[in-house]
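Schema walk-through. Below, the input block comes first and the output block second. Nothing else is stored per chain. Lengths vary across the set, and this one has 331 residues.
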Amino acid sequence: MKFVSIKKFYLLFLSILSSCSSDKDVYESPQVTNIVEENNIIEQNISQEVVSVQDNTLNSNSTESFTFIPIGSLSNKPLSIFYHIPDGDIKNLPILFSFHGASRNASSYRNYWIEMANENNFMVFAPEFDDINYEGGDKYNLANIFEDGDNPSIDTYNSPDTWTISIIDQIFDYIVNEIQGNQTSYNAWGHSAGAQFLHRFILYLPNSKLNVGVSSNAGWYTVPDSSFDFPYGLFNSQLNDSTLTDAFSKKLYVHLGENDNNPNSSGLRHNDVVDLQGLNRYDRGNFFYQKSLTKAESINAIFNWIKIEVPEIDHSASLMALDALKYIIEE
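--- output ---
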């Protein structure tokens, strides 16, 4: 796809939008100190009406939503998918997934991309992991890998078919089937809690159909380092070097706003362990990237992760999406 410059008035619009669209990172365990609860900022998008998709209802030039029912163990946990499809050959348009933050505002995460999708010819789908079926950080940020992500054990390690991240390939397959498409892979972007979701998706399911991931401004990370317990590191994570080798081979952009450096940002987790990653999102992203590079070198893995630092942007989802565009469409 050919990159088309975004018009000046759109930049102005995004700047205004960003003032009220900044996401916070996390619902956290009550055992963690210095945490601002997110429940009071969860937007009520889960109460919106959605359109149930029937055969052949995904059409070009449409901005809608539908209800997706996962297959298997999560079939009792439907979720809304907000999407935009521009004009074009729907069977061949690339697919982008946009992962929301802790505000669970998937419609906004679709809307950030509408103009860019129209100008660069790709479809965008934003799943909404509502706080009823996918409650708290364990079920979303930490992907339901453990029953209690802050206290992992082999006994509470969940089957992969119950991981929240396992739903993404299902949604992709559903979309391709509905449009009788030729797509074989997709790209993904996540911001804040969505960036946590995305980097753990790559770590735990590196053989998914994801092509390129852009992880923007995560609040903290599962660092590939065995000196830290999960969810902060590899100890008790059940990840092995073979899975990490596959994960490092994926194209992941660790996408950091240089001004996202406020240690007192609302919703940012602090405790004695996570603060070893740094005291703000920017420092923690750099820590995660350097530790990942070190681990990849130690196991002789191909390392396709790239760190991008974005000047003059803080914790703004809309502006980080605008910068992420170039990494999404270059593929």
